[in-house]
Design brief:
Low-confidence stretches: 1-10
Number of helices: 9
Strand order of the largest sheet: 1-2-3-4-5-7-6
Helix content: 25-40%
Subcellular location: Cytoplasm, Perinuclear region; Membrane
CATH class of the largest domain: Mainly Alpha
Largest sheet: 7 strands, antiparallel
EC number: 2.7.10.2, 2.7.11.1
CATH architecture of the largest domain: Orthogonal Bundle
Radius of gyration: 20 Å
Structural class: alpha+beta
Order of helices and strands: EEEEEHEEHHEEEEEHEHHHHH
Keywords: ATP-binding, Cytoplasm, Kinase, Lipoprotein, Membrane, Myristate, Nucleotide-binding, Palmitate, Phosphoprotein, Serine/threonine-protein kinase, Transferase
Membrane topology: Lipid-anchor
CATH superfamily of the largest domain: Transferase(Phosphotransferase) domain 1
Organism: Anolis carolinensis (Green anole)
């Protein structure tokens, strides 16, 4: 575990004997916030995620996120540069030092296009989708699932490559449910940790005798693809209007009529969003369909998928 020291009067922090200058707040959520910091040893910018831990359970969850980052060295998964857990009065904070990507999230890119009255071209969608699939397959191959894939949890680098972030909801890919109690426990967990408008149907009403697997991520990936194609997730507006997302996801997806995208891309989208999880393809099947539409760029290393 890293060692940290806060020197508030100078606006700097030290992690693992390296000092970082706080620049400004990038964003905040319910129990965490992210600051832009500059490494005084290398002049590079970083995003410092601070997770507020009120008790032992919070600290364990923060350590889980750190451990998930440490599992991967992959170009489509955001790496962890350093970390520390520090005392803040009666509480603790977990600090995750992450690369700063100035282009921001996929959601910000979709919003910027909407503001211009533009839509993402199919070739770009396919390229971003390739990267998302590679990152997800790396996670699935280690026996885990992301469980909270959405456009705000995808960063874009300078080469337009996507990086998966926010790994705190990751857990084992295959979860066997053998009782009503286990089903309710998983359902409650999903309600807290899996964003409602990107949550797979099987997580809204968990059956008492079933297996939940990594294909929940394939559903969420379909929602992300829909968002890239049409400027918002398929259930975003339903949630915003206060209607039942749980009910809406039980019906087959209706793809808006358009002439921008090929029938092959629409078919790929529909295959991701099959309501019955046992009929939904695994990520390897999605990659096969994707590469039939557009092979990976020449020279791209597919061995790291």
């Amino acid at each position: 575990m890293g060692h940290a020291l806060c020197i508030c009067s100078r606006g700097t922090i030290t992690i693992n004997n390296k000092r970082y200058l706080s620049i400004h707040r990038l964003g905040e959520g319910g129990f965490s916030y992210v600051d832009l910091v500059e490494g005084l040893h290398d002049g590079r910018f970083y995003a410092l995620k601070r997770i507020v831990c009120h008790d032992k359970d919070d600290r364990q969850e923060a350590m889980h996120e750190i451990e998930m980052h440490q599992l991967f060295d992959h170009p489509n998964i955001l790496p962890l540069c350093a970390h520390a857990v520090v005392e803040k009065g009666s509480k603790h904070e977990a600090w995750l030092l992450l690369p700063f990507l100035k282009r921001g999230t996929l959601w910000q890119e979709v919003e910027a296009l909407k503001d211009k009255g533009a839509f993402m071209p199919e070739e770009r969608i396919l390229a971003i989708l390739h990267g998302l699939c590679r990152g997800l397959q790396a996670i699935h191959n280690k026996g885990y699932a992301h469980r909270d894939l959405k456009p705000t949890n995808v960063l874009l680098d300078d080469d337009d490559q996507p990086l998966l972030m926010d790994l705190g909801s990751m857990n084992q890919a295959r979860i066997e449910v053998r009782s009503s109690r286990e089903a309710m426990t998983l359902q409650d967990w999903a309600a807290q940790r899996c964003t409602i408008s990107y949550r797979a149907p099987e997580l809204f009403t968990v059956e008492r005798d079933c297996v939940i697997d990594e294909r929940t991520d394939v559903w969420s990936l379909g929602c992300v693809l829909y968002c890239m194609m049409f400027g918002e997730g398929p259930y975003d507006m339903i949630f915003q209007k206060g209607d039942s997302v749980a009910l809406a996801v039980q019906n087959d997806l209706t793809v808006p009529q358009n002439t921008r995208y090929s029938p092959a891309l629409e078919c790929l989208l529909c295959s991701m969003m099959i309501v019955n999880p046992q009929q939904r393809p695994y990520i390897a099947g999605i990659i096969c369909q994707l590469e039939e539409i557009q092979p990976p760029p020449a020279g791209q290393d597919t061995t790291r998928i």
